[in-house]
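Example record used in the benchmark description.
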Amino acid sequence: MTIPIQMSLHGFIAAAPQINFTSNGGARFYARVGVEHFRKETDGSFTKMEPTFHDLVAYAKTAERAYAKFRVGDNFVASGYINEYELDRHGQAEAREEFVARRIGHDLARTRYEVDRAPSRQPDPPSADLPAGKERAPVVGL
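Model output (structure tokens):
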């Protein structure tokens, strides 16, 4: 059996997260996120480059939980997919993209936290994390 995989993104929350609601009433989380970049030098050291900034969104219960947990400066790891779309800006179509997080959590390599192992309710079915009209991207195997 092939290990199921998805795209991932790790970075930091660069601007105050927002929550709003879709036309069908579902929660939508939005955050501007930064991604750090490093260049490996010939001597084996690394030079920190300027970060790049991107849009990250999540839907439904994932959106609600992300909005409750994330603040500016928090480091995260997310899995999901890239959504490409066009935005009308002054009569011109502008190509844009956003990372849609199906799963998101704090980056344990950069975040101190405690784990609460008290029993919790069952997780929502996977389809609840998708906006209306979206279908799951196929899983790419090796």
